[in-house]
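Researcher: Next sequence.
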Amino acid sequence: MRSSVVGICGLAALVAIVACSSDSATSGGCSPEALRPAIIVQVVAAAGPPPNDSTKGAVRDGDYIDSLRPVQFGVGSIQSLGAALNRPGTYNVTVVHSGFEPWEKDDVVVAATACGIKQPVNLVAELLPIH
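Model: Next structure:
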């Protein structure tokens, strides 16, 4: 009896894994591509050196906070930072880089769908040098 219960539990776990990993077009589930940043920030400098890996930032939605991380690199510099994987919400976004004024954008709305976010919100953070 015990071995049949273990076998049934193992089969149920296998079915669950297959169902969760199958293609959304055939199963009605969510696509793996849905795991993308809700916020993508392209960081540019108005003057001075381009932003690099010392450029930092965060997104905040109520008590939720996530660090901006590089999602796309250019030659020798960061082109984009992203955060809040597949998480809809209304965010305040901050980018900081030594020698530049902090950049902020409030009330950035990321629309929701049944699978998380409708599409990422793309922002451009133009950093201004500190005078």
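Model: The chain has two domains: 1-30, 32-127. The first helix runs from residue 2 to 21.
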